Amino acid sequence: MFASAGSLGLLVVLNLVFAVGAVALGFVVGAWIATNRRNQQPASPAPAAPEPLAELPKEVEIEIERTALATDRLRDLATGVASEVGEHSTRMGEITAGLRALDTSNIEATGAGLVSALAKIVAANEALQERLAKAEEQIEVQAREIHLHESEARTDSLTNLANRRAFDDEMKRRCSEAHRKGTPLTLLIMDIDYFKKFNDSHGHQAGDEVLRKVGRKLTETCRDMDLPCRYGGEEFAIVMPATLLADAKIAAERIRTAVENMPVKFEGKDLRVTTSVGLAQLSGQDDIPRLVRRADAALYASKNAGRNCGHWHDGDESHPFTERILKAQQADRARQAKNQPAPLLDSLPNRTRFADELRRRIAESSRTDQPIAVLVVELGNHELVKSQFGGHSSYRALDMVAKALQESLRDMDLLARLSESRFAVMLPENTINTTEVVASRAAQALRKRTFTVGEQAIPLQLRVGSAQHRTGDSVEVLVGRAEADLLEPSEFEAPAVAELVGN
Fold this sequence. Notes:
- By secondary structure, this protein is α+β, with helices and mostly antiparallel strands.
- It has 14 helices and 14 strands.
- A hairpin with a 4-residue loop joins strand 7 and strand 8 (318-320).
- The termini are far apart.
């Protein structure tokens, strides 16, 4: 009897422990789920003072309305879950109070009370679980709607590409990443050529179909890491992270030719369009607006080059990368080189050859008792031209001076190049007085030419020195006296000397 009673007592204690544990477990799980659901809800912003708003575009009003509706649904769902968890907690409290009220001296009544309490706990937990499962389904549905709504807000409805808002966000993220990590970033901007004319000729529906087709083609030809966007109207942009300019040029040509070869079928017509492309790679000095301006400048260089081509911007100017334009430029340069006279500068005798010829002439003059003079001419602002405009510009300036001097000489005279910016003229059968005539003619010939760098005209200034051979002078002494006689830079006026002897 006592053994049986002890066993029954142990069973009662175990059931009681199980009941209390079940109550606690049910309450804790329910509270945890409810708290977890609450934490998933976005914090409601503090109400701001009402301000007068400008009239919003229709699509913006619809977006605000949908956002407010989604927020209300989530708030109602959170309130319902909290209410159900509260009811479950109240129910558990009632069951616990009933257990405490049991008369444990009456074993049969206690057992029946425990069984009843367990049944109520199981029923309450099942009801809560069912309600929470439904709430979770509703939350998932709402989350999908919110995700779809967010996607629609960042997607162009006509082309299904990222819209301007998504482009701006991606550029902020990628530019920050590129500056932080030192990785390359290239921006491509492209524009459909003559799109307004296309719309006028074929109608706006045909234009919309072209935009859709171009959008699909960009999606097909871009890499997964790139973000093609509809930048606005008939203009598109592609954000190309971790992409060097050389690789971006290849990708840009692939995209451009893909669009060029893309048929657009509309109302039985086979239509085609081309695009112009501009590229710019992010530099250390670039922010987002400057990078966009550079890519846009390259785009307009492509338009000015005849469209259906691509240019890239180096920070100062645009250069083509489409093979057709490159070949055309090479052909133009070849034609220009063919039509321009060959440079004289490189064909002039150097100081050594000039000295040898002058030595021969001095010996000849000594036998015939004929005078011989030397004129030295230097481009006075050569270093300024070279430092400001570069070596190629200074070479052109020196060649212009050499040609002006050559035009002023007789057949028997000899023009030579003593150093980078200094020339010498040997004048047989002439005295020092007639060297001024050569200098004046050279200055006049130089004035007839205009030396330009870009659109800027640069005046060229000459320094002139001269000397006449004296008995006993060596070549080195004669040339040295002429170089020592160099005047300050000036522009020569025609002297009152008739002509060179022998002209």
